[in-house]
Amino acid sequence: MQTVYIKFLSKDDRVKGFYELLTRARVASFPDEVYQVPIDALKLLENQQIGFRRATDEEVKSAHDQVRNPTPTVL
């Protein structure tokens, strides 16, 4: 399954889009509101007129870095 990283254009788009993706497709959520979705799911978002854009390489790298290298907890 080929996937793509996206970001929603507004808070309303994010709420509607995340709900649609959760109920009809697979979605992975990353820091900074970056989402990994199947390419086929983009048509679902477009049909529902939910605003999104593809995440830039820098946004994807930043999101992955936050997962792989979290800020250490100070005790």
Give an overview of the whole structure:
- The chain is α+β, with helices and mostly antiparallel strands.
- The protein has one domain: Alpha-Beta Plaits (2-Layer Sandwich).
- The chain is 44% helix and 23% strand.
- It is built from 3 helices and 4 strands.
- The protein has helices spanning 11-24, 41-47, 57-68, and strands at residues 3-8, 28-30, 34-38, 52-54.
- It has a 4-stranded antiparallel beta sheet.
- A hairpin with a 3-residue loop joins β2 (28-30) and β3 (34-38).
- The longest helix is centred in the first third of the chain and has 14 residues, at 11-24.
- The protein is elongated and about 45 Å long.
- The model has no long low-confidence stretch (mean pLDDT 90).
CATH class division: Alpha Beta
Mean pLDDT reading: 90
Strand portion, in percent? 15-25%
Helical segment count: 3
Instruction: Kindly give the count of domains.
Output: 1
- Using the CA coordinates, give the radius of gyration: 13 Å
CATH topology: Alpha-Beta Plaits
Order of helices and strands: EHEEHEH
Q: pLDDT below 50 for ≥5 consecutive residues: which ranges?
A: none
- Class per helix and strand makeup: alpha+beta
Main beta sheet, described?
4 strands, antiparallel
Reading side by side through the largest sheet, how are the strands ordered? 2-3-1-4
What is the total tally of β strands? Answer: 4
Task: Give the helix proportion (percent range).
Answer: 40-55%
* Named CATH architecture: 2-Layer Sandwich
Morphology call: elongated
Span of the ends, CA to CA: 42 Å
